[in-house]
User: What shape does this take?
Amino acid sequence: MIPSGRYSKVAGCFAGVRADVRAIYSGDYDTEWDFLRDVLRREGVPDSAILKENEATYTWENALMTRALTDRMGLNVRRAILCCKPFHARRALLYYQAAFPDTEILVSPCPWPGCDRDDWHRTRAGQDMVLGEVRRLGDQVNEVFAQMTGV
Assistant: This one.
């Protein structure tokens, strides 16, 4: 398993977890990777099965740095399961497909109360999250493709 992430480039630090999750995971985490490693450990995943990528600050870096890690380890990733927020899944999949073009990537979005495919439009917070992703699909993806192609 490869949890990936330092913290949000925008926030400049690990912003923490949702209030409902904080009741379960109340540790002091420096990075997203630290938090996700704690989740995996508590679910019984041994440390030996958790690889470390704790430098990425946005999704494209998550994909690139995960690819660099698997390449350094000599791993040929034929199939992967990408776990992410449901409203973030499209962009995350796009980036990981670009970083791992020969890999079959399955997406398993995590539950996100108030912002899943059936109810995101019912609250301002849900609308902001989903429409923020739409904006990033235009802005960030354009930058990523320019970076990849040099155009």
Observations:
- Residues 91 and 137 are 6 Å apart (CA to CA).
